[in-house]
């Protein structure tokens, strides 16, 4: 190899952050067991061992398949996954279930799919050719539970059943829609930076350039009302809003976005007993259920 050849990075930062994530998981698990008055069992070793092996494989895969990729994202995902394992293990201790083992298996499956994607899709820019198709598929998946309902969590229509398995198609829809919006920002970035009216010292975009974010806001609000599920739509809207801000560095987009969230939130609160109950419980966590609208089954589910 010549001296001018680019050397493959060792991804030391990613490895150290993963070790930190594993240490935090171990500390949380030990603290949980001691707080419950339990002695340390093999379950703790199973959880921490499965975590370390799974994300070590992911780290090795990135080292060979995507050596110049970001070194922070995988440790962040691992830390969030670890927090989820601790919470599920706490539920296992209370209900004598084994859900944490299932969660580890799903984590292994997720990492396997992750490795498969980076092995097949060597250049993410090739997705730009199919951005509109991916966006359309994302919308279809997002709305699929409305026409393909499942008995799981009837309060929020976000699941579909395929034989013995159940899945939330909205989780896949988020990825596809974000790919579409990322490509839209790449193609239309100059338009989003065009100044329109100036108000209170802030340059707001032209009305016609507001179209994409207004469309997202409208679709998110309609889906929230139809599915009676508000978290995913709010997450999607917030992510796109953050992408707009990063692409344009204009605070006016944040002001507009927060205003639309406030308007949509007030509107949804007026028509959803579920949200009314949750707001009441947030303001007073020990409030009796009767303070919320208990005439509807949705009001009783949190």
Question: How would you summarize what this structure contains?
Answer:
The chain is mostly helical.
Please provide a written account of the structure.
With 302 residues, this protein is mostly helical. It is 67% helix and 5% strand. The strands form two sheets. It has a two-stranded antiparallel sheet with strand order 1-2. Strands 3-4 form a two-stranded antiparallel sheet. A hairpin with a 2-residue loop joins β3 (195-199) and β4 (202-205). α2 (42-65) packs antiparallel against α3 and α9 packs across α10. The longest helix is centred in the N-terminal third of the chain and has 24 residues, at 12-35. It starts with 11 loop residues before the first helix and ends in a 19-residue tail after the last helix.
């Amino acid at each position: 190899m010549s001296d001018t050849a680019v050397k493959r990075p060792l991804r030391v930062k990613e490895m150290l952050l993963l070790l930190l994530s594993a240490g935090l998981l171990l500390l949380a698990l030990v603290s949980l067991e001691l707080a419950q008055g339990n002695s340390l069992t093999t379950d703790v070793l199973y959880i921490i061992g499965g975590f370390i092996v799974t994300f070590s494989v992911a780290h090795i895969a990135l080292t060979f398949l995507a050596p110049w990729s970001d070194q922070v994202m995988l440790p962040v995902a691992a830390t969030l996954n670890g927090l989820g394992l601790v919470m599920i293990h706490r539920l296992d201790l209370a209900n004598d279930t084994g859900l944490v083992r299932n969660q580890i298996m799903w984590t292994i499956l997720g990492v396997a799919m992750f490795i498969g994607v980076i092995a097949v899709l060597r250049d993410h820019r090739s997705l730009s050719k199919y951005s509109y198709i991916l966006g359309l598929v994302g919308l279809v998946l997002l709305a699929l539970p409305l026409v393909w309902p499942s008995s799981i969590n009837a309060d929020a229509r976000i699941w579909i059943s395929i034989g013995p398995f159940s899945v939330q198609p909205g989780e896949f829809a988020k990825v596809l829609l974000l790919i579409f919006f990322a490509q839209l920002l790449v193609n239309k970035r100059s338009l989003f930076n065009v100044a329109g009216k100036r108000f209170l010292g802030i340059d707001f975009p032209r009305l016609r350039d507001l179209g994409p974010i207004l469309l997202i806001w409208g679709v998110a609000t309609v889906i929230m009302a139809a599915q009676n599920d508000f978290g995913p739509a709010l997450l999607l809207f917030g992510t796109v809003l953050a992408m707009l801000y990063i692409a344009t560095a204009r605070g006016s987009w944040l002001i507009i976005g927060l205003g639309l969230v406030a308007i949509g939130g007030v509107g949804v609160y007026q028509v959803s007993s579920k949200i009314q109950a949750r707001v009441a419980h947030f303001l007073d966590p020990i409030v009796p259920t009767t303070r919320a609208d208990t005439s509807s089954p949705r009001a009783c589910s949190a």
